[in-house]
Write a structure and sequence with these properties.
Blueprint: E1 2-3, E2 20-22, E3 25-27, E4 39-40, E5 55-63, E6 69-78, E7 84-95, H1 100-108, E8 139-151, H2 157-175, H3 178-204, H4 207-216
Antiparallel strand pairs: 1-4, 2-3, 5-6, 7-8
Subcellular location: Cytoplasm, Cytoskeleton, Cilium basal body
GO cellular component, one term: MKS complex
GO biological process, one term: cilium assembly
């Protein structure tokens, strides 16, 4: 139920970045900016149906002095569902072959086992069963990649709540004090929720029971 504009680039390749030693780790600062725009169209209006958020897949490659490429790691992250700044560090892994010959080939010749379908990092796109088994798939952890994500959300459903918050905020501004604003706003929200629950409970009661209780009072 997610879509993107026709001109949207859904994949890309960063520049090659030299690593530097930080403590015991070799760190590369790519500083590669990218922009992603996605649209969600809700088909089922039921409250139990929650949208599956988009997933970002990434692959890390290394290039040595002799122009030999090696796969250093795969990883994936689910885009944050809340707006704002998010710093996410995702661990990576790579597939390995059994035996010393495979490691010698990787070290001297270059090249390493790769995934034909990068979605196998999470849930393969061709998977249609109920349980996914990775038994026998040999991997090893390699490192981590840190993403700095700035998320922005727009929705028509936000209009009503934002208008209500603006009205409440205008009242609270006249009261003065930031702490008083937050406490009064929380009390008013709790009062509105309790009032709605009371109205729903009253509507669910039989009419004869309501009239009897009213006459008794």
């Amino acid at each position: 139920e997610w879509s993107s504009p026709a001109f949207q680039q859904l994949s890309g390749v960063t520049q090659t970045c030299a690593t530097k030693t930080v403590g015991w780790d070799n760190v590369a600062y790519f500083c590669y900016p990218f922009t992603l725009e996605m649209f969600f169209t809700q088909g089922d209006e039921s409250e139990d149906s929650l949208p599956q958020w988009p997933v970002l897949y990434f692959e890390v490659l290394s290039l040595d002095f002799w122009q030999r490429y090696r796969v250093e790691g795969y990883g994936s992250l689910v885009l944050p569902a809340s707006p704002g700044l998010h710093m996410l560090t995702i661990p990576t892994w790579r597939p390995v072959e059994l035996g010393t010959v495979a490691e010698l080939r990787r070290f001297f010749i270059g090249g390493s086992p790769e995934l034909e379908d990068i979605t196998y990092v999470r849930i393969p796109s061709t998977f249609k069963g109920e349980r996914l088994s990775r038994f026998g798939f040999r991997t090893e952890t390699t490192g981590s990649v840190t993403f700095r994500l700035y998320c922005l959300q727009q929705s028509k459903a936000f209009l009503e709540t934002s208008a209500l918050r603006q009205r409440m905020q205008s009242v609270l501004d006249r009261l003065g004090g930031f702490s008083q604003q937050s406490s009064v706003y929380n009390v008013l929200e709790a009062f509105q929720r309790a009032r709605r629950r009371m109205q729903e409970a009253r509507e669910s009661l039989p009419q004869d029971l309501i009239s009897t209780s009213a006459s008794t009072v």
